[in-house]
Amino acid sequence: MDHAQFKLVIPSQTRYLNLVTGLAKRASLVAGLDDAAAAKVSIAVDEAVTNVILHAYHGEGEHTVELELRFTEQALEIHILHSGQGIRSDQMVLPDPKEYIKHPRKGGLGLLLMSRFMDEVQFKADEASGRNECCLIKKIS
Question: Which regions span the lipid bilayer (predicted)?
Answer without folding.
Answer: none
